[in-house]
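Student: Send me a single protein entry containing the residue sequence and its fold in token form, directly below this note:

Tutor:
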Amino acid sequence: TRSSKLKGFRTWNMEYNGENAVYYALYPESWTIYDLPGQNIMLTCHQLSPVIPNNYKDSSLPVSLFNWTVENK
């Protein structure tokens, strides 16, 4: 069992089976779906990078929007 080294999170089990996650990418967006079978919860993280037409400088800034969806099965 791998635990966190952060104060207050030492008792959290930080292991996750990668077989329960799926990653999709189609620039400028990507999304990852995490299935948590023990909790009957599905998490989806949708990530969107900015694309500004004819503006390569601002489009390449290291920024992104993350939108999380939680589904209680």
Notes: The mean pLDDT is 86. The two ends are 26 Å apart (CA to CA). The beta strands are 21-26, 29-36, 41-48, 65-72.
